[in-house]
Amino acid sequence: MALSTRRPTLPRRRRRGTRGLRTELGRFWSVQQLALVLLSAAGVALFIVGLQGVSGWTTDPAVWLLAVVPVLLVRVADSAWPLAYWAVLLYLWVLAVPAASFSWWSVLGGAGLILSHTATALSASAPPAADFPATVLRAWLARTVLALAAAGAVAGTIHLVAGRVSTLSPVAYVVGLLGVAALLALTRSNPPDTAD
């Protein structure tokens, strides 16, 4: 058997005819990746609308510049920068919203957080030029809708309990967070591989 001297052909990251945008730095971004960035920015805008509604806060128009940050973070979506950004936004929420208050605007803020987080997570899971298969997009959409429905159910439960209980103790918050962590651990379907 003779060895071939022909160079092997490498698979291309994007198919011929894939639509997208080439930046000045030469990097190609698929339309799906760009749509995920815009969804992330829309999630931040929903969060800001919810924040304004729940706090009664009339903000300076400059606050809307926060919705542009996901576009700036697109190159580092797979790093800790989006997490740090959301930590700042959540800290802003804690500062602006009165303690132990409930408003349906909170659901809108939570929906914005879920939408932005899931869009950024899906975007970070593939190279910028990648197109996602339809099965991946359907699974992402189903999980995002499930998370939004769960947020609505939690908000409804809080609304029912809020009228009956004057204040919740810190123990109730810890138990609630442990319940969420346990649910996430039980529903995790694809655990990471262990290093050998």
Offer a few descriptive terms.
57% helix, two-stranded antiparallel ribbon, mainly alpha, single chain, 196 residues, 2 strands
Describe the structure in your own words.
With 196 residues, the protein is mainly alpha-helical. It has one domain. 57% of the residues lie in helices and 3% in strands. The protein has 6 helices and 2 strands; from the N terminus they run ββαααααα. The chain has a two-stranded antiparallel ribbon with strand order 1-2. The chain starts with 19 loop residues before the first strand and ends in a 9-residue tail after the last helix. About 3% of the residues have low confidence.
Show the helix and strand layout:
Layout: E1 20-22, E2 28-30, H1 31-55, H2 69-72, H3 81-96, H4 105-124, H5 134-162, H6 170-187
Antiparallel strand pairs: 1-2
Structural class: mainly alpha
User: What order do the SSEs take from the amino end to the carboxyl end, as H and E?
Assistant: EEHHHHHH
Question: Biggest β-sheet, characterized?
Answer: 2 strands, antiparallel
Rounded mean pLDDT is 75
Distance between the termini: 35 Å
Low-confidence runs of at least 5 consecutive residues: 7-12
State the domain count: 1
Shape: globular
Q: Give the beta-strand count.
A: 2
Number of discrete helical segments: 6
Order of strands across the biggest sheet?
1-2
